[in-house]
């Protein structure tokens, strides 16, 4: 990132004021998103800051209504009214080209950045392909538009991408309905990577498939990620899945990140009571069992968030200080951030729902 | 911390109560509507199962494996092509309104989606009152009110007055599913058939529902069928597990036997595919999880479930099975007992290879994902 003298018209006055360093691909600071009117706002995402490093898989875990999808929709500029970014900043530092202010880029800049720098695989990935055109057309369309590639070369590249995800090149001229569900899912992933983006966002990409297929797809994504070097933001409600595939995890609750850190440490020693409860909500597959209780209560109503910590009403460790102010996301050493006043004093946890 | 007994800690040996509901060699073939005449979907083949009071059996399998067809057949919502359903040993029938109603009083089904299964136009009170009035012998306003409260208390929706006059949209997913369960319980059934009861709920509240079902099973001696694709959840809360693949039950045993010493290669694949954070403990770091050894992605491709219009000959798993032998593609594997109350359909169990004591579990390193 040496192009300090960039002339990007939409960049903040001094984009490198807080230049996050070479290894950061995406830098988000203080992002807040509201739904609803100014008079009656619903804070879906509140003051989220996060960084995605090059070549990393960042998992974002959270339950329905935690704000995880709103967060990435804001970053990808896919929000629709009444959703609205209230504050914050998000900068993408692509390998090539100038940094991009994601929240303020104009239509032309977005068009250029999409596919080339950011790509996304949605929850219903299986149905994301155009049912009335052949795979070849959908691949070459992207390549011809973004890369101005001649048709024959585009076809060749498309075949190569399909083979990378284990689909024979002979299927290039198939229609989506001629492929099995798993193949469609993999074709969608291949398509998203066709311009070798720096960032691949996956929003619950495997919730519609069963565990056997899920594992195949995830292994493929990790293999491709190793080979092509892109970063992944992986969104899911399934913490146990993230623990296996992610490098780092950010846990969201009530629109905020409540804890983040490297996956191993987060699993072995979660410092936020919610992370701990979530981790212990998955019955173990092996080893001894004891009764698990999940997390009593329900996720917060974003219209009636408590004045203090959003998790306080369900928290077994809550005290009076939790009810007055929202705890800040504080540095907890070893690359970890925790938003809990009791982070230092939580008892040593048990591992994996075991005693 | 003293470990509380987890919900399926009882052994199967402690008395074998007579089954309430039994499926004997049930086969369901659906006609194919948009295709050559005479073609059928072989959705369920020769499935047998016994549901006993106070016991829970899990039906575990991929989507399309026939789990829901089986549940619908047990609820007599689907007529079996062959085979029979026995209630207390007598062939069950839902021919005619009276028989159907009498059957529904004893066998109730709870569906996956509590957002779709509760009529949004009615309050909880109405939703729960209807089964009471249709099936029960309620004796007036006072009696109804009392039973409604008791029902809500049974599913831990307390205080009842907070929920009685609520509309479904005012409740959370977990609360709605509790209402759906309460509605099923209203008729005092003997059997509860649950189809993916918790899969649409948030992870943190699933356990509460599973614990509630376990309590109902133990306190009210309900016989329960729990359909799921989550084998870890099945291990947590059910007594026995039936693993289904492509319309067939391929393995059956106690929850511990099936999950800890699986006998069928498909069960192995299912277990190995299930996210298991504890596995991390055995890895030096995450990066060891996936070795980039294969240039093409074929090695971890176990294919997909077969087309049930033309199911594979022999063992239906053989096209995906890393241990398939010649006989697997020609003859249907017999049922082989591997332990007391634990059996599987697999040729490997009939003729174990020389060095294998108990195939496939002894020789699956290459299958470990």
Summarize the entry for a quick read.
With about 350 residues, chain A is α/β, with parallel strands linked by helices. Chain A has nine helices and twelve strands.
Features:
heterodimer; A: alpha/beta; four-stranded antiparallel sheet; 9 helices; 21% strand; B: 369 residues; alpha/beta; Rossmann fold; 11 helices; 28% helix; 20% strand; ATP hydrolysis activity (chain B); Oligopep_ABC_C (chain B); nucleotide-binding (chain B)
Tell me the major beta sheet of chain A.
Answer: 8 strands, mixed
Oligomer: heterodimer
Which secondary-structure class do the elements of chain B indicate?
Answer: alpha/beta
- Arrangement of strands in the largest sheet of chain B: 6-7-8-3-9-10-12-11
Give the helix tally of chain A.
9
List the helices and strands and how they pair.
The complex is a heterodimer of chains A (355) and B (369).
Chain A: E1 24-36, E2 41-53, E3 57-61, H1 68-75, E4 84-92, E5 100-101, H2 107-113, E6 118-121, H3 135-147, H4 151-164, H5 181-192, E7 199-203, H6 211-228, E8 231-236, H7 239-245, E9 248-253, E10 256-262, H8 263-268, H9 273-279, E11 330-331, E12 337-338
Parallel strand pairs in A: 3-8, 3-9, 6-7, 7-8
Antiparallel strand pairs in A: 1-2, 1-4, 4-5, 9-10, 10-12, 11-12
Chain B: E1 21-31, E2 40-51, E3 56-60, H1 67-74, E4 82-87, E5 90-91, H2 97-106, E6 107-110, H3 124-135, H4 141-154, H5 161-164, H6 173-185, E7 191-195, H7 203-220, E8 223-228, H8 231-237, E9 240-245, E10 248-254, H9 255-260, H10 265-273, E11 335-339, E12 342-345, H11 347-350
Parallel strand pairs in B: 3-8, 3-9, 6-7, 7-8
Antiparallel strand pairs in B: 1-2, 1-4, 4-5, 9-10, 10-12, 11-12
Helix pairs in contact in B: 3-4, 3-6
């Amino acid at each position: 990132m040496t192009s300090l003298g960039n002339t990007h018209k939409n960049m903040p006055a001094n984009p490198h004021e807080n230049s996050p360093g070479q290894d950061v691909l995406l830098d988000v600071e203080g992002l807040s998103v509201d739904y609803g009117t100014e008079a009656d706002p619903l804070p879906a995402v509140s003051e989220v800051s996060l960084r995605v490093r090059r070549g990393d898989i960042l998992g974002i875990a959270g339950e329905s209504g935690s704000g995880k999808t709103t967060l990435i929709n804001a970053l990808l500029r896919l929000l629709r009214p009444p959703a609205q970014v209230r504050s914050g900043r998000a900068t993408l530092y692509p390998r090539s080209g100038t940094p991009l202010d994601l929240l303020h880029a104009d239509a032309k800049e977005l068009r250029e950045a999409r596919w080339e720098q950011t790509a996304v695989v949605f929850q219903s990935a299986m149905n994301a392909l155009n049912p009335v055109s052949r795979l070849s057309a959908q691949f070459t369309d992207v390549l011809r538009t973004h890369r101005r590639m001649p048709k024959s070369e585009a076809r060749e590249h498309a075949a190569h991408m399909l083979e990378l995800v284990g689909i024979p090149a002979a299927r290039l001229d198939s229609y989506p309905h001629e492929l099995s569900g798993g193949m469609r899912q993999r074709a969608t992933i291949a398509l998203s990577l066709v311009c070798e983006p720096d960032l691949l966002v996956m929003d619950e990409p495997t919730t519609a498939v069963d565990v056997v297929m899920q594992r195949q797809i995830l292994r493929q994504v990790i293999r491709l990620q190793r080979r092509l070097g892109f970063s992944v933001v992986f969104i899911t409600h399934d913490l146990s899945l993230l623990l296996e595939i992610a490098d780092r995890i950010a846990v969201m609750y009530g629109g905020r990140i409540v804890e983040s850190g490297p996956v191993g440490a987060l699993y072995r020693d979660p410092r936020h009571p919610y992370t701990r409860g979530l981790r212990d909500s998955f019955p173990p597959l092996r080893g001894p069992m004891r009764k698990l209780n999940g997390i009593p209560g329900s996720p917060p109503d974003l219209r009636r968030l408590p004045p203090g910590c959003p998790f306080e009403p369900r928290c077994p460790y809550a005290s009076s200080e939790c009810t007055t102010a929202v705890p800040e996301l504080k540095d907890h050493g070893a690359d970890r951030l925790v938003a809990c006043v009791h982070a230092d004093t939580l008892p040593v946890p048990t591992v994996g729902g075991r005693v | 911390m003293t470990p509380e007994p987890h919900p399926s800690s009882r052994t199967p040996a402690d008395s074998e109560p007579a089954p309430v509901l039994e499926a004997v060699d049930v086969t369901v073939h659906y006609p194919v509507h948009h295709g050559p005449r005479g073609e059928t979907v072989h959705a369920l083949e020769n499935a047998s199962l016994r549901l006993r009071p106070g016991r829970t059996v899990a039906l575990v399998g991929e989507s399309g494996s026939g789990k829901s067809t089986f549940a619908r057949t047990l609820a007599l919502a689907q007529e079996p092509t062959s085979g029979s359903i026995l209630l207390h040993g007598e062939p069950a029938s839902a021919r005619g309104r009276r028989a159907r109603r009498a059957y529904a009083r004893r066998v109730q089904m709870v569906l996956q989606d509590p957002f779709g299964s509760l009529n949004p136009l009615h309050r909880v009170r109405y939703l729960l009152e209807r089964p009471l009035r249709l099936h029960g012998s309620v004796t007036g306003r006072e009696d109804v009110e009392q039973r409604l409260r008791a029902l809500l208390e049974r599913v831990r929706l307390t205080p009842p007055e907070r929920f009685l006059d609520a509309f479904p949209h005012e409740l959370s997913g977990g609360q709605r599913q509790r209402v759906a369960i309460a509605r099923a319980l209203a008729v005092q059934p003997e059997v509860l058939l649950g189809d993916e009861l918790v899969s649409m709920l948030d992870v943190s509240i699933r356990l509460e529902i599973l614990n509630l079902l376990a309590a109902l099973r133990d306190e009210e001696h309900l016989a329960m069928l729990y359909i799921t694709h989550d084998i870890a959840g099945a291990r947590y809360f059910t007594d026995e597990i039936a693993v289904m693949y492509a319309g067939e039950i391929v393995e059956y045993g106690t929850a511990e036997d099936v999950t800890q010493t699986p006998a069928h290669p498909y069960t192995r694949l299912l277990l190995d595919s299930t996210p298991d954070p504890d596995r991390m403990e055995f890895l030096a770091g995450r990066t060891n999880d996936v070795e980039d050894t294969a240039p093409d992605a074929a090695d971890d491709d176990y294919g997909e479930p077969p087309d049930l219009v033309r199911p594979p000959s022999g063992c239906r798993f053989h096209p995906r099975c890393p241990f398939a032998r010649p006989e697997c593609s020609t003859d249907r594997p017999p049922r082989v007992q591997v332990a007391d109350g634990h059996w599987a359909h697999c040729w490997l169990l009939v003729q174990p290879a020389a060095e294998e004591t108990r195939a496939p579990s002894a020789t699956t390193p290459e299958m470990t994902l």
